[in-house]
Sequence to fold (197 residues):
Amino acid sequence: MQLDSGDNYLDIHRKLEGVTHALCNAHLLRELLHVSETTGQAWAQRMSHFLLDASKLRDAVKARGGAFSPDEVQAFRALFDDIVREGEVENPDLARADGARGKQSTAANLLRRFRLHADAVLRFIGDFRVPFTNNEAERAVRMPKVKQKISGCFRTLEGAEHFCVIRSVLDTLRKQGHSMFSVLQRAFLGNPIPSVA
Fold:
């Protein structure tokens, strides 16, 4: 897979072969909030409520060890499609004089992504292994990006590798419930991971 600097996250997802894609609903909720605040269009707030309510329902069903039936998944999709249609009425595609698709509003572009990637947006409803957001995955790469942004780069490949190993170990231990303060104290003593009896 060849990536270039012009690739956005949707382009990158589409270039990955042999995987099933899901879009991060946290990103979509931020975009919906922007559209709602800047345009006052009701569909954006309806879509936000729909996604958040679907996530809560899914979590409740998942906690009981259940899953949505195919009919229930289809009902979610029908409601999603209704909201998208409502938004498309308010934000029709603009065409240029030559008939090509012209420059669209932020709302129209968001609606187009909802229409084109509906399965990826709603994947968390039909497959409970799929999280509602990808925030956890983003958190894992945020610190290297912040460090790179602040200092401009890593000075050596070896330094970047050490940074990533340390962050990875700390993140794993945090997820396992270890105290970061205790882990760092133990690291300086030469034994960061408590031994298991």
Remarks:
- The CA atoms of residues 62 and 113 lie 28 Å apart.
- Confidence is low (pLDDT under 50) at residues 1-10.
- The chain is about 65% helix and 0% strand.
